Every structure is written in structure tokens, then in C-alpha cells.
Task: inverse folding
């Protein structure tokens, strides 16, 4: 009797905690989507006016901020700005590993294997992160080295 009562207590607490956690996560995701959308609009304005700005113009942190906002944007925006980032990386205006991250993310968006091995996925059954499948594991072992000649 007490055992059943205790199991019921923990079951109801876990159920409530799961519902509460889901609500918090949903709220957080909505807020982040709003922030990401606003940030993307601002970045699009900058990119339209300046192209991919140099570190001399906006500093290294500014260049990385642009990359991160695009990396966290929707799939269409990531795809649209990949060519601009590629040109910037070729001219050493942006870091080449950033291009590798973006290309792998775009591949994931399309359900394809990544090239450079920069993206992870969470595997619920194992409760851990694993590399998203890689097209050619031998070619992606050293992303930084490969990025020096990827473009």
C-alpha cells in the first residue's frame, strides 16, 4: 500500500516536471526563433550594404557574429549566404573553418552526409552526441588542415 502510494507520488511529480520542462523548452525555442529572425534581418542589411565585412571594418568578433547568426538562421538563409561566405573565406576575410561548419550544416539540412565532420546529433537511445554521418571519414579527420585548401 505505502509502496504503491510512493510510486504514485513520484510518477505524478515526474509527469509534472516533464510537462513543465516541455513548456519551458517550447517557450525558449519560440523566443530564440524570434531573436534569430530579428538578428538575421539586421545581418542581411549589413551584408547587402557592405558584402561580407572584413575584420578591419568590424573586428574578428564582428565577423564571427555574422557567421554565427547565419549558422543559426533558417536553412534557406544558410544556403543563400554560403556563396558569400565562400568568397570571404577565399579572400581570408572570414575564417575557413566557418565555411566548413556552414557547408556541413547545409548538408544536414538536405539530409545528406556532411563533408568536414563539424556537426553532431543527439542519439536519445544512447543519451549522447555522435557525429552526423560523414561522406568520407578519411578526408575529414583534420578539418582545419582541410579547410586551408578547401576553397
Result:
Amino acid at each position: 500500500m505505502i509502496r504503491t502510494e510512493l510510486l504514485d507520488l513520484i510518477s505524478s511529480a515526474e509527469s509534472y516536471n516533464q510537462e513543465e520542462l516541455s513548456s519551458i523548452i517550447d517557450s525558449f525555442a519560440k523566443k530564440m526563433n524570434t531573436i534569430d529572425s530579428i538578428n538575421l534581418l539586421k545581418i542581411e542589411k549589413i551584408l547587402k550594404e557592405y558584402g561580407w565585412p572584413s575584420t578591419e571594418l568590424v573586428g574578428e568578433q564582428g565577423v564571427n557574429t555574422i557567421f554565427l547568426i547565419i549558422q543559426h538562421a533558417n536553412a534557406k538563409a544558410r544556403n543563400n549566404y554560403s556563396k558569400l561566405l565562400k568568397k570571404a573565406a577565399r579572400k581570408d576575410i572570414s575564417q575557413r573553418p566557418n565555411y566548413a561548419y556552414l557547408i556541413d550544416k547545409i548538408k544536414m539540412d538536405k539530409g545528406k552526409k556532411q563533408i568536414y565532420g563539424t556537426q553532431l546529433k543527439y542519439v536519445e537511445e544512447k543519451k549522447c552526441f555522435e557525429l552526423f554521418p560523414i561522406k568520407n571519414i578519411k578526408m575529414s579527420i583534420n578539418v582545419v588542415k582541410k579547410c586551408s585548401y578547401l576553397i
Summary: DSSP finds five helices and two strands in the chain.
